[in-house]
Amino acid sequence: MSVINQVKNSCKHQTLVEIKTTTYNVYVGEYETDYEWVWKSTEEDIDLHRYKCTQCGEIGYYSSVAENYYTKGIKNPMLGPNCV
Ligand SMILES: [Zn+2]
Predict the structure, then answer these.
(1) CA nearest 66: which of 79, 53, 51?
(2) pLDDT at 35
(3) Alpha carbon of 31 to ligand 1 centroid (Å)
(4) SS3 content of the chain, % helix, strand, coil (to 5)
(5) Tens place of pLDDT for every residue, the chain, 84 residues?
């Protein structure tokens, strides 16, 4: 099952973000700008115990309790008063 998912979805749930930092170089006496590329997660919280990738739309769950609640409708008091 997980193998099939990997083939279907090649999304890493990450994106490269450019970080710009300006530092003052005391030796040269002027500001220097550095650019750095870092990997940033594209997964955002959309619900209680649930997140979604903004790139591929894949929904993930922080726990099996949350997955059971959203996919099977199994309520659990661990998820809070609204899910009991
Ligand atoms: Zn993704």
Answers:
(1) 79
(2) 95
(3) 37
(4) 25, 45, 30
(5) 445 444 567 899 999 999 999 999 999 999 999 999 999 999 999 988 999 999 999 999 999 999 999 999 999 988 887 766
Contacts for 65 with CB less than 8 Å, ≥ 6 apart: 49, 76, 78, 79
Q: How far is the CA of 14 from the centre of ligand 1 (A)?
A: 7
Distance 10 CA to ligand 1 centre (A): 8
Count CB neighbours of 3 within 10 A. Answer: 7
Asked if residue 22 lies in contact with residue 32, where contact means CB atoms within 8 angstroms, the answer is: yes
Q: How far is the CA of 11 from the centre of ligand 1 (A)?
A: 4
pTM of this structure: 0.64
Pair 74, 68: CB distance under 8 Å: yes
